[in-house]
Amino acid sequence: MSTTNKGFNHQQRRPQDREGAQRIQTDGFRALQDLSSFDAETLDSIVEVQRVLFSSCYMLETESYNVNKKVLDVLTACVVRHFPLLRALNSESPVNKRVEVVVSLAKCSPSELLAWSSHLARDPIPCQATKPSDTHPTSRNEKPTTPTQEQKIVDHQAAVIKHFMEHIKRQDARMDALEAKQSNDPIKTTNKRSCQDEDTEAVSSTKKKQRKGSVRYLHSTWFAWSYAPKQQRSKAKILVAFMKLFLPDGFALDLSTADYRDRVLDLGKRAESAVLLFMRDEHQIDSRGSSAVLKHLQGLHNAGALNTFIQRNQRLLQTTDIHDPAPGYTQDVLKVVRK
Fold first, then answer.
1. Mean pLDDT throughout 22-37?
2. Res 1: pLDDT
3. For the chain, what are the domain ranges?
4. Over the range 109-142, which residues count as b (16 or more CB within 10 Å of their CB) and which as e?
5. How many CA atoms lie within 13 A of 178 on its CB side?
6. Pick from 233, 234, 235, 236: which is nearest to 223 by CA?
7. Which of 44, 176, 282, 305 could form a disulfide with 300 if both were Cys (CB 3.0 to 4.6 A apart)?
8. Who's near 325: CB < 8 A, 6+ residues apart?
9. How far is CA 124 from CA 21, 85, 176, in A?
10. Do 99 and 53 touch, CB atoms closer than 8 A?
11. In the 8-state DSSP scheme, what is residue 251?
12. What average pLDDT is seen over the chain?
């Protein structure tokens, strides 16, 4: 049948037939899942991951090279939602490696990524027609309202993850308040009544978006710096250099080994224990956060209290006791202070 005949038949078709065809075409359009179901604070973290993940087509100077923001939201939601399935199929695939590196560069944790995925899996996909229909769905299209066993497991895991994240946030807030009280900082200290109100607040209650710092432990800074690209001088590099001074027997790391991350984390915890023990026993300093510890170590270094440790580390660097895959300019950054 030619194009002319098709057009003639369409014009001569009965009105009810044309309405049926238009209804079928309209029902074919389905809405896709995006990031609109997240709250503002979570959305900020996801947007940071999105910026790194799609850096080649997002926020470019040439506007014509940028992909539409709504398209990126749909692609990001698809990647986040199906990440647990991709990791279960092949945890060593390039896709999983890329997503893990992007999450690390965006300063997010794998647990947050899993929580986002559970939220998207729990959130119903808006796959209904864009135009509401007045007719009731037939029994063939009706779906059971009883959740499946898999959905129950996903909901339970999401609830457990949310509970632990809220618990960690409360612990960090209490640690901040304790350190501020010990250092007599009037800016960080809060009254007793507000602390009690915060402790009695329910886990599931909604909180307004607020920016507040949390304690980052030394081994976390060590692990993040060892795994992330080292392209600039930062506080993390200085703190890791101080921590290396407290490994008296040296250390050996190999990027090609399968347990590289585990060894990095183990060395970070050993160095953290040695640093905190030295500060507490020798100088009566009880700080534990990365920023506070770095400030105290810099003061001790300027006073010459770390000269013995620096000299020992310089001798180890001349031997095979230290095998560090980090660039050479990051290994010997601390010098002996001459009084």
1. 66
2. 54
3. 40-128, 167-200, 218-330
4. eeebbbbbbbbbbeeeeeeeeeeeeeeeeeeeee
5. 12
6. 236
7. 305
8. 253, 254, 255
9. 28, 18, 38
10. yes
11. E
12. 75
